[in-house]
């Protein structure tokens, strides 16, 4: 399977269901992904026999209408872009000076359907951040236990009558995630299979009731240092 096929497979997770209506016309997420891929390939530079350095900070400039539609999906879409950039870099053996940082910006000068990307190499620490993506919202995971269910006493409350008050818990020990079903009435699934207790791999999909939960571990940028010594 080619890398662009992988992009398409990944983005299907974001632009299905309720999101599909948002992208019936106008600029598509796949077009942004293709532009990011081209930017990586164009700007990648051979610095030694075993190292090809690619930019790790991207500003994706969009027309006002496209910006509203893209940002309307919340952080889940940027998470997808970040992960797919990471996948492409791995496939092409590119290296980064720091964590990947992607920002969407509104540009009044651009027409609908046009995307422009500015990129740069920025030094910085990579912070591996575990998050849960639920219905377009991002929930950072803290170390310890996070309970998910429809009860008001759950750490993440779901508006889903198919879930129990305390349906599942996600455990994070700082390096590894785990999902445990808390004796729910309707049970839980992990990647389409019934689950009671299991270790979570990045991009695992947990299903409870009608709700889909994606567990991600993102390579995010910490405080970044530009080549001129300034930070942001």
TrEMBL record:
Matches recorded under CDD domains: FHA (cd00060)
Keywords: Phosphoprotein
InterPro entries tied to this protein: Cell_Proc_Reg/RNA_Proc (IPR050923), FHA_dom (IPR000253), FhaA_N (IPR022128), FhaA_N_sf (IPR042287), SMAD_FHA_dom_sf (IPR008984), YscD_cytoplasmic_dom (IPR032030)
Domain (FHA) ranges: 146-195
Protein's UniProt keywords contain Phosphoprotein: yes
Pfam families: FhaA_N (PF12401), Yop-YscD_cpl (PF16697)
Signal peptide boundaries: none
The UniProt record lists the keyword Phosphoprotein: yes
Protein name: FHA domain-containing protein
